[in-house]
């Protein structure tokens, strides 16, 4: 039973209806196999008013053999409201140019494509200093 956020009446009003329904922000769907959770509303990126789910973009980019790990976030953008930024960790010994990622992303809807690809390795950032020192 959820009664509210301690000491935060405004946050409680935002998630709890007058009928006592708790809006968790979880996204999902029901089918013959049951309930499937697919994400969280607050993690949606909204470029140009569209709704983009980061895991969908991440899965698409992760299809590339050079990609070890990818994380997608939204960042404030002067034209698009939210820009899509893909952080990519390339497999050791491999290289991947931003242009190749952007070309690969032409296989998905234009509004889902990253406007920025970051592929700097943590070790490279650490070697430059200031990241975790």
Structure summarized in a few sentences:
By secondary structure, the chain is α+β, with helices and mostly antiparallel strands. It has helices at residues 9-15, 54-62, 98-104, 122-128, and strands at 26-31, 34-40, 67-77, 81-90, 116-118.
Relative helix content:
10-25%
User: What is the spatial order of strands in the main beta sheet?
Assistant: 3-4-5
Strand-and-helix sequence, N→C?
Answer: HEEHEEHEH
Poorly predicted runs: none
Mean pLDDT: 86
Q: Which class best fits the helix and strand makeup?
A: alpha+beta
CATH architectural group of the largest domain: 2-Layer Sandwich
Q: What is the CATH T-level topology of the largest domain?
A: GMP Synthetase, Chain A, domain 3
What shape does the CA trace take? globular
- Could you tell me how far the N terminus lies from the C terminus, measured between alpha carbons in angstroms? 44 Å
Number of strands: 5
Largest sheet: 3 strands, mixed
Describe this structure in words.
The chain is an alpha+beta fold and 133 residues long. It folds into two domains: 9-40, no CATH class; 44-127, GMP Synthetase, Chain A, domain 3 (2-Layer Sandwich), CATH 3.30.300. Helices cover 23% and strands 28% of the residues. The chain has four helices and five strands. It has helices at 9-15, 54-62, 98-104, 122-128; strands at residues 26-31, 34-40, 67-77, 81-90, 116-118. A three-stranded mixed sheet has the order 3-4-5, with helices on one face. It has a two-stranded antiparallel sheet with strand order 1-2. Strand 1 and strand 2 (34-40) form a beta hairpin. The longest helix is centred in the middle third of the chain and has 9 residues, at 54-62. The radius of gyration is 19 Å and the shape is globular. The chain starts with 8 loop residues before the first helix and ends in a 5-residue tail after the last helix. The mean pLDDT is 86.
């Amino acid at each position: 039973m959820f009664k509210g956020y301690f000491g935060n009446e405004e946050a409680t009003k935002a998630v709890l209806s007058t009928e006592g329904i708790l809006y968790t922000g979880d996204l999902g769907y029901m089918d013959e196999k049951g309930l499937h959770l697919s994400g969280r509303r607050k993690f949606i990126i909204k470029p140009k008013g569209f709704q983009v789910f980061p895991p969908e973009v991440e899965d698409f980019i992760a299809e590339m053999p050079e990609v070890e790990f990818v994380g997608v976030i939204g960042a404030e953008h002067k034209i698009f409201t939210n820009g899509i930024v893909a952080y990519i960790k390339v497999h050791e010994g491999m290289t991947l140019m931003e242009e190749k990622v952007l070309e690969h992303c032409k296989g998905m809807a234009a509004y889902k494509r990253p406007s920025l690809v970051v592929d700097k390795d943590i070790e490279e950032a650490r070697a430059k200093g200031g990241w975790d020192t």
